[in-house]
Design goal:
Strand content of chain B: under 5%
Shape of chain B: elongated
Mean pLDDT of chain A: 88
Radius of gyration of chain B: 17 Å
Largest sheet of chain A: 2 strands, antiparallel
Largest sheet of chain B: none
Oligomer: heterotrimer
Number of helices of chain B: 3
Low-confidence stretches of chain A: 454-466
Distance between the termini of chain B: 54 Å
Helix content of chain B: over 70%
Chains: A mainly alpha, B mainly alpha, C mainly alpha
Structural class of chain A: mainly alpha
CATH topology of one domain in chain B: Helix Hairpins
Chain lengths: 648, 99, 270
């Protein structure tokens, strides 16, 4: 059974190689090959899952050693896989959601002439992501980590003819690189501390290592997680990453890749358990990001960017939970899985709407679409109910547990974190209701020609829209797109409930993440009630603002907070001022320093040497008699020294 | 009289020879000054031989003479050859070994 | 030279000899470096060397004393003189210093060196002299020979090799090999005509001049001396007699005197 693990990775990798090297001959069959190999990987994952289920809880870890990669003295890097409960969960999520999105892409990318390449990149992403979660050491994990970064870069910039897409791809790559440096430093620290970077020995020895070292490793791992999972302060790339095709946003920037940071922190739980300071940093990052993303999500008119803000916020929940330690690990992963279902479903729904609306993304140009695309409306609506935590749907179970765990942290800290999580839940309900109302309800604003927006005066209306405006003809998407949406909607409805029966999910993960239930200061039912109340408040507020009044087709100027949130809470401005301009100034200062001090010292030495040589050259006049004088003088000095030494 | 006076004489002759090497430009005269210095050394060796009561100093002086003879032969040949090509025996004119 | 003179303290006779001959040696050395003409320098040096030979004899180095006279004064100094003649016996050196500061540096270094050397000798405790009485008991030459052919035999062999090398080197340095066939007279005249610079033979010296000697340049019809008429070697050495101004007057006076003498002798003959 162990030998199948490598095939999980190999199948999509083969697909990527085939599609990317196969050339135009595969243009007609490329998308089928890619989809089949993704499905094949899923088909391999299922028997492995049943195999694990059939074993005792203690023996549910499979290993496969493929080959020794870099054997250099004490430095042993193996290509080896480890399939345990945590990896298995991710494998099922990645291959399952991945396959559905492959199917969806068949319809979504139908008219794109580079569809084969797109599927090649998707397969490459699957392979890299599976490598990331299946690796049994940090170095191999790093390979997968870089691989998903590469695939993300290629897919965000898939429509590279658009300068915005090309720029967004570069931005994502560069910001991710900052995090990657953190991961590489963490791996080096591990090697110097433990002498290895395989999961087993590192995590086993973490308990006996000094807290300082563990904190250093933990902070570096957190930096890596921030980069990959778009957490504050490395969050700025995720919004721009929506320039990629919508299936990419659904798969990579909602369901799987951005959750790699959560995987990393959960996997390294033993390290964080020994480093309370690093854990504090993690929860602070998580809490800040969950509010940050939620506020950004409230202000965005671009449906995908609103969802991106939501993704950031939800991953903030997961990071918060992961930072809580054994109280939260299992719930972080559980929320990750349910989020994978409903957020992928929401993105696919958004893609379906865009598909029917001539690729319009501005929600102010939508409205009343429920009549025209009923399947999309229902699946999107179920996803919506799931994410706001409607009782009984999956988001309810997972998010409620995280809030509970946050309170269970105890003390003032627990109250602050729990309060932030509750506030986040209210804002989530608000912005998701806003998206829902602006898209599917209300006046059909797309019938009228757009007017230039005062908020964004730079956006010039296209020439044809000014003269003869033809409104789009909203229609339901083809079957290949609706079926994955339906399946994901089913998942977002039932997954949470299924996981919570007898705490099945928590029990399943327990051997890996060591569950600790903790004691919240309030009773569980009180917290649940509070969660439901804030959710209802958020929904009600959104209904008041966007349901009762007609939504303006042009965004109003809005309050200071709104305007800041529209600009992603000024994150890019911050980066520009602090990093770009500050870095520029620093570089200029360093260049100045280099010119004056370093070059000055070097050139000064050279010049003084040259001057000295010029002086000494005078002695070398070529006249034998001058040399003879020097020799005689030297001899006299020698005699003098000899006499003096004898005298002493 | 103490025989050590011979040594003072040798030192004086040696110094005079050295000064001659430094101030004369004619290569032949420079050569003669070198011979004078060698002879001063020989005198010192002979006196040392007397001082120590053995003949080793004289042997050294003897070898010095042989080497001086060889040196004169080669040196004068060089001077003749320089004079042939440059029509001068001044050591200052052979100052090409500089930048 | 008796063995008594080789005792620790020299006899009064030796002291007198030392002070007289030592003065001569120093004067000879000074003359060597101060004489403008190389011939005078060489002769002064020869004198100094003979004095040194006497000192060798006085110090019991009989063999070296003789060798000094035979080899140094007889052979080496004559070689010097020979080369001086070859290079130009009459050319006097200018004692004007051309290198800037050379004379001062030389004086400083020389004085410092000499003072240090003499101070070093004075400082050393060289009071005790063994004398060569025992070493020279079996004869000085026999003693030297015993040492040269036993203890110093390798050095002796090596100096022999050095002498041979020096002889070969001197030959190599002074030997000029003809690398091309000598031109025939016909070829020479043909080349001269082809160049067209000086077709007839060069004019003879002294022709139309006031004085007919090889070192007096011939005068051209306009009265100017022609450098072409004298031997190039003399020209190189700068030994051409000046035929203008005071030199001419001097020459005229000389001729007058000789004429008078000739006239007198002629008169006497008559």
């Amino acid at each position: 059974m162990e030998n199948l693990i490598a095939l999980l990775v190999a199948a999509p990798l083969a697909g990527a190689a085939l599609l990317l090297c196969g050339g135009r001959r595969l243009d007609r069959a490329g998308h089928w090959i890619g989809t089949l190999l993704a499905l094949g990987s899923f088909a391999l994952a299922v028997p492995l899952f049943t195999e694990l289920l059939g074993r005792d809880a203690e023996h549910r870890t499979l290993h496969q050693h493929l080959f020794s990669w870099i054997p250099v003295g004490g430095f042993q890097a193996d290509v080896a896989f480890q399939l345990d409960q945590l990896s298995m969960t991710f494998v099922l999520l990645i291959t399952g959601v991945g396959s559905l999105i492959h199917i969806y892409s068949i319809g979504y990318m139908e008219h794109d002439e580079r569809r084969r390449r797109f599927f090649g990149y998707l397969n490459l992403f699957l392979a890299a992501m599976l490598l990331l979660v299946l690796a049994d050491n940090y170095l191999l994990l790093y390979v997968g980590w870089e691989g998903v970064g590469l695939a993300s870069y290629l897919l965000i910039g898939f429509w590279q003819h658009k300068p915005s897409a090309a720029t967004a791809a570069k931005k994502a790559f560069l910001v991710n690189r900052v995090g990657d440096v953190g991961l590489s430093i963490a791996i080096m620290l591990m090697f110097t501390t433990f002498g290895t970077f395989a999961f087993g020995p590192v995590l086993g020895a973490a308990g006996e290592t000094s807290e300082g070292k563990l904190t250093a490793i933990g902070v570096m791992l957190l930096l890596a997680a921030c980069g990959k999972s778009a957490q504050v302060p490395l969050q700025s790339w995720l919004g721009d990453a929506m320039e990629g095709p919508t299936p990419v946003s659904a798969l990579i920037h909602a369901a799987t890749m951005v959750t790699a940071g959560v995987y990393l922190i959960t996997r390294s739980g033993a390290i964080f358990n020994g480093a309370p300071d690093a854990q504090t940093a993690v929860v602070v990052v998580g809490a800040v990001t969950l509010l940050f993303g939620a506020i950004v999500g409230c202000a965005k008119d671009d449906i995908k960017k609103a969802l991106a803000g939501s993704t950031m916020s939800q991953i903030g929940y997961m990071i918060l939970a992961a930072g809580l330690g054994p109280i939260g690990y299992a719930f972080a992963i559980m929320h990750l899985v349910t989020h994978g279902f409903f957020k992928a479903g929401l993105f696919l729904g958004a893609g379906s709407v865009m598909h029917g609306m001539n690729d319009e993304v501005d929600m102010r140009r939508y409205g009343g679409l429920r009549k025209y695309m009923p399947v999309t409306f229902i699946t999107f609506g179920l996803g919506y109910l799931a994410i706001i935590g409607f009782p009984g749907l999956s988001g309810f179970f997972s998010k409620d547990k995280i809030i509970e765990a946050a309170f269970a942290k105890g003390g003032t800290e627990g109250w602050i974190l729990g309060g932030a999580a509750l506030l986040g839940a209210a804002i989530t309900a608000f912005y998701m209701t806003r998206v829902m109302l602006m898209t599917f309800f209300g006046e059909e604003r797309w019938r009228k020609a757009p007017t230039p927006s005062p908020a964004e005066p730079s956006v010039e209306p296209a020439a044809e829209t000014r003269g003869e405006y033809t409104p789009p003809h909203p229609h339901e998407s083809p079957r290949s797109m609706t079926i994955p949406m339906i399946l994901l909607a089913v998942g977002s409805v039932f997954a949470g409930g299924l996981f919570s029966i007898n705490e099945a999910f928590v029990t399943w993960l327990e051997p890996v993440t060591s569950v600790d239930h903790g004691h919240p200061p309030l009773s569980a039912s009180a917290i649940t009630t509070a969660t439901i109340v804030v959710m209802v408040l958020g929904v009600g507020l959104a209904c008041l603002q966007y349901g009762r009044k007609p939504v303006p087709a042009v965004a109003p100027r809005g309050s200071l907070l709104t305007r800041a949130a529209r600009r992603d809470l000024l994150q890019d401005d911050f980066n520009h001022v602090v990093l770009v301009r500050g870095g520029g100034e620093l570089t200029r200062a360093l260049v100045q320093l280099d010119h004056s001090v370093v070059d000055g010292a070097v050139n000064g030495t050279a010049a003084s040497m040259g001057g000295l040589s010029g002086r000494l050259r005078q002695a070398q006049n070529g006249f034998a008699r001058s040399y003879a004088v020097q020799m005689l003088g030297g001899a006299a000095v020698l005699i003098a020294v000899t006499l003096l030494m004898r005298g002493v | 009289m103490n025989p050590v006076n011979y040594l003072y004489l040798a030192a004086l002759l040696f110094t005079i020879g050295a000064a001659g090497v430094l101030i004369r430009r004619n290569a032949i005269v420079v050569f003669m000054c070198i011979e004078l210095m060698l002879n001063a050394c020989n005198l010192a060796f002979v006196v040392f031989s007397r001082m120590h009561g053995n003949l080793d100093g004289q042997i050294i002086a003897f070898f010095t003479m042989v080497v001086a003879a060889a040196e004169v032969v080669v040196g004068l040949a060089i001077i003749v050859s320089i004079f042939r090509t440059r029509h001068t025996a001044s050591v200052d004119d052979a100052s090409l070994m500089k930048l | 030279m008796t063995t008594t003179s080789l005792a620790a303290a020299a006899s009064t006779g030796e002291a007198v000899q030392f002070w007289i001959l030592g003065t001569v040696a120093v004067i000879g050395a000074l003359c060597t470096i101060l004489m403008r003409r190389a011939v005078h320098s060489a002769l002064s040096l020869a004198g100094t060397m003979i004095v040194l030979a006497v000192f060798y004899l006085a110090n019991g180095a009989y063999f070296l004393g003789i060798v000094q006279i035979v080899v140094y004064t007889g052979a080496i100094m004559m070689l010097f003189l020979f080369v001086v003649m070859l290079v130009g016996v009459t050319a006097a050196d200018s004692l004007k210093e051309t290198l800037k500061g050379q004379r001062w540096l030389a004086a400083a270094c020389g004085l410092g060196f000499g003072i240090l050397l003499i101070a070093g000798i004075g400082n050393a405790s060289l009071r005790h002299f063994n004398g060569l009485g025992e070493a020279n008991a079996g004869g000085n030459v026999q003693g030297l020979a015993a040492l040269i052919f036993t203890k110093y035999v390798f050095a002796f062999e090596v100096t022999g090799a050095l002498l041979i090398t020096a002889a070969v080197g001197a030959m190599v340095l002074t030997h000029r090999e003809r690398t091309e066939r000598e031109k025939t007279q016909r070829e020479q005249s043909e080349a001269r005509i082809r160049e067209g610079k000086q077709i007839p033979p060069l004019p003879a010296p002294g022709v139309y001049a006031r004085h007919n000697a090889v070192d007096v340049p011939g005068l051209l019809p306009d009265g100017t001396p022609s450098e072409l008429t004298v031997n190039p070697t003399l020209r190189e050495r700068g030994q051409i007699r000046d035929v203008s101004g005071a030199a001419l007057d001097e020459l005229k006076a000389l001729e007058q005197r000789s004429e008078e003498r000739l006239g007198r002798s002629e008169e006497a003959k008559r």
